[in-house]
Specification:
alpha+beta, homotetramer, Hypothetical protein af1432, four-stranded mixed sheet, 399 residues
Chain lengths: 399, 399, 399, 399
């Protein structure tokens, strides 16, 4: 074969190597290149200015970890065909292809309640058609229909390469060095038993560290009050624009108007794949001068980083407190009571340190037995961490 | 004073501290916040996907190094007033405020031949008005009219904190770890003599290393053939759009139409300060579908990373070779001969390892003598490195 | 003052600065310089070859963190006199001065059951005499008799700079990157309330991470079965040499013979301060050829890294298993039954993730309240982690 | 085969993998394990306290880089047999096996003028006998008698893995971060042409950086005046002990007495392989109390880090200056004139940035041509850097 391979520089792993022409073809596709224009962490850069890395960088990183994991498993005697290697590689490259502008922050706002996983799968099918069915294996692995479940678990599970890369990468770019995990050690400890992905006994402490790092990143970064406040502003901008029918460019207008919902899937996907953070940012820049005072205020404030205030508390926010905030707003800003609801509101976030039921981390002992990490002796990770922690917040614009 | 200070996370330095309210006020200004939306390295991320950091991150980093340098000089007995500290800090924070979208890549395309330094100064004057003259000292330092030239040299000189930060930061984000410099060691070796900034004798090897790292970053990153090719595409897009009067949004339209040239300075600046990378990227996304085939092809190719090819050579590109490339293009693409000039062209880049005359690096010896680094015994950095190295290139679209 | 200061290169912190002449005097003292010749991690380098750093490097590192912590507290309004700064600095520099050869590994073997803290204090008193009482403040802080308990807590507590440095440094040198802690973030979060050292509310996740990193380092490194095996060999070598009266050089002979126990304290200390790892290693090299087969076998095996085997289990090792191992040894090696007790034995190690009672980590909330970290909402660190975890082991020489 | 492989933690590369049982056998040999007890950088730790890494750590690191380099060459189509891989691996593992205590610092003092390379070869022959001739290929590669010269060049050449590792490692452990080189990039650029090791065209700037980093490490670390002073003390201690016949332990006594010179080679080698830094350090500790005042003073001063002063100059030290220093010594110390020659003396050190003749770095161009790096256009590395730079010094004990 004449494909000479390609090396990509990465600030974290040094070099990422592309060996297979089909992988290169996927990476070169305009839909994949679009991931360059979507921030991995939406507006986290308003708090952590370094965190401006793209979904593409993350996806390439996860691909790199997949290569390392597959090599390690092969070294331990797991048999893999070249097609399986390529399939797992493409599954991870495309796992986030269905994210829209600002990814999680706008999920649920632009295309109804379709999840990004659902969109990823729909787009993978389209790409598979364009590429003569050569993504079939990738799709099977992605949807866990392939007969080697551990390949799916590497793409999506408690210990998948997606999580490993995003924790490392988000930690690296934010400068919150405590999120760093020992990915090389975890990968060296991966093993397969009964076709399931497991970790060896001696990895227990590294896994604990991984779960605690994830816990830290959630509360310190992803759910940081100012990050959350900025993302709530974004959500409210999009909702307001839709409600008042604010003008925007195609293809954003196509989604805001609701047209997408009645169009054929393939047409909708083509339009979706034309959108990225630029479309939203450009609209926000235009809407700064919109004559709706709520929309223009929100846009201006977000661009100038005059962010909402947000306060966390353990119990739901009372109606009285919320009403009081809204009255203050009306009083000070001259906005209507209805408008004030846009600019002062309550909400809830939730995070679980370890999903006990859904996705287990299994420890393979030397004596052949298998235990869930929450059941090992003297476990750090216990039942009580498996419950979701809810935090309630009130969020409001300061005038 | 009631300003409690602010700490910003940085992936390189860990924490950057803001102690003074005036510094905070500058950072909070919309013109400064706009630097979030300008890539530090324009389209270098098409080759180095990690290199998506913003001008703001660089400017905060240079500010941090300024704090370290000023502390070190004070520790060595250099007397500085609080106003001088704040002045130098703001001068470095604002040194790049005058960059437009895609900074260097589009310099000379949007506002005629005004340099970004010139624009920075103009914008600093405006800000100074808004802030009741409190930026006076910063402006004096920036323009080297203050009676302590070493403060200016820290902002702009062979060894300034601007260069130190961009080398470190660009090296960090690209993953080209060889560009890393020993900034902490260089800063520890800074000294002032006769009001000039110098380095102590024992820093010679660190300075050599700094100049060689810079040389490497230029040829390996900033002037990388693919980076250059992408930036040439951008330049050609903007030129074409202007020539054919392609529609765009305000304020980009104001600059493309040439209106800016006949407007009052202050009005022009206000408009300029509204523009960032988003405006250009949004226009490119729209122009993909323009009916001018040159413009639409260029835009689509850039977005999809189907970049120009570029070949360096030591001698100027001959007319014959260029003519041949253009003919090929016409033949294959059906474009007109005139259009082909847009898509196949020649150029020149230039870099100097050490500017011997313009900006010296002076070594302060223990015995009181001073030498230029190119004159020390057994110098690595010599006359021959002071000459600019020119490289010629031919660049063309592949169809 | 004519002391120009001194800068020491450190691989972790970059530069460590010495500003005060008394600090320099302490560092230059032969007793302090002796710490260069004591491994920080005894024989951990037999498992982690990079881990050959000295007690001196650790002690300088802890000193550096003390500077950072004191600066941070001062920035937050805690008033400190120059004498207090120097006192706390010297207290941390000398906190480990009383360690003998191979530190913890031989604690209890050379000078009876005197702890290294006890020896450190005795040596600090001697040094104080030599330095005209100028270490008085350091001694008060070290012994927690100074009226600002937080200074002692920085030297010795759950969150002291000693632990911070050893976790970072041991993690760095072993290559077990997961032990890395966010020391800069923790230090930025330190505060003083009611003269006690506390951390601010937002540091909770960093502290959790710190405790989990410590837990990991204990089980993965400090109590690693091969490290423990090597250290047990060392202990048995010293015991055997003492029992059979094996010849050694002064001053080691002075301690092995028990003479030290009947000598005046000052004389004993002077001799103690002459010993370091070199004395033990040189004796082991000589004893390789001793005619006692137990001693010579042990010495040869340790030097050639033919280490004991060690197996952990959750229950105490039964007498039967132990007897069996010893019989095997006798059978295969021709050693006597009595000798076999030296070469096959059982033991126990113990570690606690969080000392709930002894040394608290207090969280200072913004509303003025204070909680122990094990009592915050949704705490990771809970009662059950406060119990010591015991592991039992059997350890034997393979012939 | 039942060898399960072994993973070694390394602070620089993360994990080093041993795949072949013969490699494991070499590493487990007592002669190799002895390298644990020899500092890689002798007394550099008196200036850079972190630099206490062992020859073993370096040798394992160079072995790791060899694996990376061989993989890369194979990826580029260079055919290698498993025996060649193992041979090159063992050649690099053993390249420094012939170093004695304190390596370069005492080279020429203990076994006449036999170089460490010569001793390495002699020891490799012995090991080859013990291992039934299985080191034959390693010896051929080490001595450049194998028909693929590039394998030898990887072990010993301008760009060998030995240099790469020691620059990285010494830089890492000293904290002189400027010595860091982009080893991964250089290795990715290695290629073989006409059976010679070369680098690809685009590696030019990385190679320049490598040579400048090496230049920096020489002048800033290896030939640092205080490092040199400490090593001169060591040399003088050993010479003095030999001259006055100071008592020492076997096997050091065997070498100091000169007996080794008349013994059979094999016996000499066995004794040599019993010595390491411990023997020298233990002797120095004993000689502190020797009744020869020169010897005891030197030993005490070295242990307490009261080091010689050393001053560099560009011209040889004049007899007058030297005589004056010695007179001062006699005057102040009460030593004899003869003794003063031990404690005040002159010398010379020398370093070459690029060995133009001896060992070339060849650049392989895409067009098939080959150039030496000093001949490429706009080269940084030029004729003038190929000349050795000599520095003269005077060195003396301060009383």
């Amino acid at each position: 074969m004449s494909f000479p391979g390609k090396i990509i520089n990465d600030p974290i792993y040094g070099f990422i190597s592309i060996h297979h022409p089909l992988v290169m073809q996927v990476i070169s596709h305009p839909w994949y290149q679009r991931l360059r224009r979507i921030y991995q962490m939406a507006f986290a850069h308003l708090v952590y200015p370094g965190a401006v890395h793209s979904r593409m960088a993350h996806s390439l990183g996860a691909y790199h970890l997949m290569q390392l994991a597959l090599s390690e498993l092969q070294r331990k005697g797991v048999q893999l065909t070249p097609d399986e290697e390529v399939g797992a590689s493409i599954a991870i490259l495309l796992h986030d292809i269905g994210h829209g502008p600002f990814s999680h922050a706008l999920e649920g706002e632009l295309i109804g309640n379709r999840s990004h996983e659902d969109m990823s799968l729909a787009m993978m099918h389209q790409l598979n058609n364009q590429m003569d069915g050569r993504l079939q294996m990738a799709i099977q692995i992605f949807t866990n229909q392939y007969h080697k479940p551990y390949l799916h678990q590497l793409v999506s599970g408690q210990l998948d390469v997606d999580r490993m890369d995003y924790l490392i990468r988000d930690s690296f770019y934010t400068g919150v060095s405590e999120g760093v995990i020992g990915y090389d050690r975890i990968i060296k400890m991966l093993t397969v038993k009964n076709d399931e992905l497991m970790v060896e006994e001696k990895a227990i402490y590294s896994i604990e560290k991984f779960l605690v790092a994830r816990r830290l990143m959630y509360w310190q970064v992803y759910l940081h009050k100012t990050v959350l406040a900025a993302e709530q502003m974004l959500v409210r901008i999009v909702r307001r624009a839709r409600e008042i029918g604010a003008e925007s460019h195609y293809p954003l207008s196509y989604f805001l108007s609701g047209e997408y919902a009645v169009a054929p899937e393939q047409f909708m996907l083509t339009n979706f794949a034309m959108m990225d953070d630029i479309d939203i940012m450009a609209a926000i820049k235009q809407w700064q001068n919109h004559n709706d005072p709520v929309l223009s205020r929100l846009c201006k404030a977000l661009l100038q980083r005059k962010l909402f205030k947000l306060r966390f508390q353990n119990e739901p926010v009372s109606e009285e407190i919320l009403a009081e905030k809204r009255e203050q707003l009306v009083h000070r800003s001259g906005l209507s009571a209805a408008d004030a609801e846009y600019l002062a509101f309550a909400g809830k976030v939730s995070n679980t340190t370890y999903h006990h039921h859904a996705e287990r981390i299994s420890i393979a002992y030397k004596d052949g037995s298998v235990k869930d990490i929450s059941e090992v002796d003297h476990a750090l990770i216990q039942q009580n961490l498996a419950a979701a922690v809810d935090k309630y917040y009130i969020c409001w614009m300061t005038i």
